[in-house]
Amino acid sequence: MNKVKFAIPKGSLEKDTLKILERAWYKIYGSERTYRPLISDPEIELKILRPQEIPVSVSEGLHDVGITGEDWILETNAQVEKLLNLEYGRVKLVCAIPQSSPLNSLSDLLKAFHKDRKDLRVATEYLNLASKYIKSNPIYKELYGDEEPLIVTPWWRKGNNSKVTIYLSFGATEAKPPEEADMIIDITETGTTLEQNNLKIIEKILESSAVLIANKEAMKDEWKCEKIYDILTLLKGVLDSDKKLHIFVNVKKENLNKLLKQLPALKKPTISPLSQKGWYSVNTVIDKQEFQRLLPILRKLAQGLVVHEPQQILSLEDIFKKSGKD
User: Fold this and answer.
1) Which candidate among 118, 212, 226, 248 keeps its CA 20 to 30 Å from the CA of 90?
2) DSSP codes of every residue in 193-236
3) In whole angstroms, what is the distance from residue 209 CA to residue 211 CA?
4) Per-residue pLDDT at 156
5) CATH number where 73 lies
């Protein structure tokens, strides 16, 4: 049997990933006991990996499709096809330094350490993003030109500017200053953990969230592409359903056109005559944010309002356009 190999993340993205898959009508078995959980679709083979590994694993064709953080796609420069922003796991990659420091920017830090003839030490898990960001700083360019910051790991060294050295952190990066680092580059959701470790954010590098990605060669395989678009359709259906409401109203014939002029819909509302002459049933899907605006109108023009939160809204035409189908 053909199978699509699907890598899903361990760690901070794991809980929300399993939740969105289950809301997309997949059943997952054994995720708490094994790195190879079973899934209700026999044509999908799951593997749990660290999110750091997934972009490269998908890019290299070890897996056909995966869920990871946008930050790790950028860090690894993985050549993958990004299919869908899944809108969870939202974090910021930031520069942070001790709260006791009077400095408030990377530029200030670079100038101060250069003036005092001190080497600036940076701790991070994001070696490539850190190096690229620091090197792009105008003060860094002014002081060091095109020199690459020195990157130090237990296995190798890269770069030639030891005045700014980036050290690989294996976690708990917020604990490194001031003994092991002068600045950290790390992800944060709210900034609370940084504050609890007496750190302050001085700059934001990027924002990230969970992303559905695919191997480019797998997308050229007709069977795998269809299966991957099945996954995409169901996951997008979950996201779209969170933003919509399905409403049913009964309305008199004389108010029908007035209501329809006010009522947005995915396409056009469904209108059905009721058994009682002169009355119609109208059902449609609207944006949640529109409901408060529409409620006074519905109260005046309609009766018997029923509101549902849909579990899935499948925008099949949009998916077909993306996949190049007719």
Assistant:
1) 226
2) HHHHTTEEEEEEEEEE-EEEEE-TTGGGSHHHHHHHHHHHHHHH
3) 6
4) 96
5) 3.40.190.10
Give the residue from 187, 208, 229 where a domain finishes.
Answer: 208
Of 95, 99, 102, 188, give the one whose Cα is nearest residue 137.
95
For residues 136 and 20, give the distance between their C-alpha atoms in angstroms, rounded to a whole number.
Answer: 37
Domain count, the chain: 3
Q: Tens digit of pLDDT for each residue in 237-280?
A: 999 999 888 889 999 988 888 888 887 766 678 899 998 899 99
Using CA atoms, how far apart are residues 32 and 27, in angstroms rounded to an integer? Answer: 13
CA distance 61 to 206: 27
pTM of the entire structure?
Answer: 0.88
Closest to 165 (Cα-Cα) out of 153, 179, 178: 153
- For 179-230, the pLDDT digits (tens) are 999 999 999 999 999 999 999 999 999 999 999 999 999 999 999 999 999 9
On whether both 101 and 170 belong to a single domain, the answer is: yes
162 contact partners, CB below 8 Å, separation of at least 6: 119, 150
CATH of the domain at 272: 3.30.70.120
CB atoms within 10 A of CB 273: 11
- Written as six digits, the tokens of 278 are 């002169």
CA distances to 1, 22, 120, 166, 203 from 134, in Å? 49, 41, 11, 10, 11
Do 24 and 234 touch, CB atoms closer than 8 A? yes
Position 185, amino acid: I
Q: Is the pLDDT of residue 325 over 60?
A: no
